[in-house]
């Protein structure tokens, strides 16, 4: 099932299209991100990663949600779900096969797109720069997988593709645009006395914030650029802890999807 799903994405050139988009945007940001300050060209790995993080937080979740929202409900509407369930596989194997195939397609396009930029900029970034850039690439793939999992879950719960797509867009708006505004509103209304201590832990309920912390705390200059050092304690910003939280965002929605799919 996973191999079939991956072949379908390769056949319709989805992987190539997304890789080209990532490559083009990453190159534009790397070379022209400082144009407003009157500078053109690669400035530093800190500035490049900070700019790419802002891009990835908006773009990657949207692509992942649009990729997975019809994984199950689309098969149901096309009438092919009954045929797939008639095969000698369990519902869990079908669900995981769908997810793993889509995840492979997404990771391939993400790593290919950003990897081409790493090859083009290798001489200018240097060894330390390439190390941090590879960490950014891997965390970007994790972010996509963390949003692909809720998309597949919505595909199981939704009655049709229209509702699944609407719920996916709503999910993107909530996590990317609304979630942080709600936390900020609570802090402002409470005068900083309400929710201040719990704020760093509330950020774990948003995979986009986990991705931001994971990349911001990897470089000192980026950390001061975002100003998160006064909000997030360094102990909470452990790469292993943030990576584990991202894995949780992958596993839990799939577990809910599996429970619903079996019923």
From TrEMBL:
Gene Ontology MF terms: ABC-type transporter activity
GO cellular component terms given for this protein: plasma membrane
Any single Pfam family the record assigns to this protein: ABC2_membrane_2
Membrane-spanning intervals of the chain: 14-35, 47-69, 99-124, 130-157, 169-190, 240-259
Keywords on record: Membrane, Transmembrane, Transmembrane helix
Claim: Transmembrane is one of the keywords in the record: yes
Protein name (Swiss-Prot/TrEMBL): ABC transporter permease subunit
Protein source organism: Piscinibacter aquaticus
């Amino acid at each position: 099932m996973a191999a079939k799903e991956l072949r379908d994405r390769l056949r319709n050139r989805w992987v190539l299209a997304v890789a080209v988009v990532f490559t083009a945007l990453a190159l534009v940001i790397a070379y022209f991100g400082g144009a407003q300050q009157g500078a053109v060209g690669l400035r530093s790995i800190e500035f490049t990663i900070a700019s790419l993080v802002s891009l990835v937080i908006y773009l990657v979740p949207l692509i992942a949600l649009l990729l997975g929202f019809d994984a199950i409900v689309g098969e149901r509407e096309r009438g092919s779900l009954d045929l797939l369930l008639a095969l000698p596989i369990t519902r869990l194997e079908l669900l995981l096969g769908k997810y793993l195939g889509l995840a492979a397609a997404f990771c391939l396009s993400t790593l290919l797109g950003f990897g081409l930029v790493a090859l083009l900029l290798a001489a200018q970034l240097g060894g330390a720069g390439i190390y941090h850039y590879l960490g950014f690439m891997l965390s970007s793939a994790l972010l996509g997988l963390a949003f692909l999992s809720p998309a597949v879950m919505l595909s199981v719960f939704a009655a049709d593709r229209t509702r699944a797509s609407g719920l996916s867009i709503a999910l993107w708006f909530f996590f990317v645009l609304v979630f942080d505004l709600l936390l900020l509103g609570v802090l402002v209304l409470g005068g900083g006395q309400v929710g201040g201590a719990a704020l760093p832990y509330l950020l774990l309920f948003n995979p986009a914030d986990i991705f931001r912390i994971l990349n911001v705390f990897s470089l000192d200059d980026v950390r001061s650029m975002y100003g998160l050092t006064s909000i997030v304690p360094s102990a909470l910003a452990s790469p292993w802890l943030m990576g584990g939280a991202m894995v949780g965002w992958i596993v839990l929605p799939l577990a809910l999807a599996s429970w619903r799919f079996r019923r």
